[in-house]
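As a next step, we paired sequence with structure tokens, yielding the entry below.
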Amino acid sequence: MSGTVIRRRKRKLKSEINVVPYIDVMLVLLIIFMVTAPLLTLGIDVDLPKSNAKSIETKNDPVVVQIDDKGNFFLAVKAGSNEAVSKETLATKVGALVKQNGKEKLQVYIAGDGRSNYQPVMDAMNILKDAGVEKVGLMSQPEKGAKK
């Protein structure tokens, strides 16, 4: 019996990555994010009064107290996070923010609807003053054609 050696060829390993499934997953995720991103913007519609005032540039996100045309209060601590609050809750939350950030660093603005009465804006200013806020700004919408 003579020894016959059977040689089997070993397959060479591929060192390439198949990226086609990754591209498919990425496209599906892109479509999901494009559809859901506009739905994540939370807020209320406030028709701000018009003015010729220059816009203010800030380093930190300011605290914004929004008042709708029915006199309801909304508090936005971070951009895009509106929360319906009562007058008592507004005073408590802003007071805690003043203690946390300090009186000088905290920027508070009131965005009152142009169609609402002026009384809720004055109430908000009094609540903020009692909570320890020293400076309160009033927000407005720039007029069409006004310089920025």
About this structure: Strands lie at 50-51, 63-67, 73-76, 82-85, 108-112, 136-138, 141-142. The chain has a mean pLDDT of 80. The first helix runs from residue 20 to 36. The CA atoms of residues 11 and 18 lie 18 Å apart.
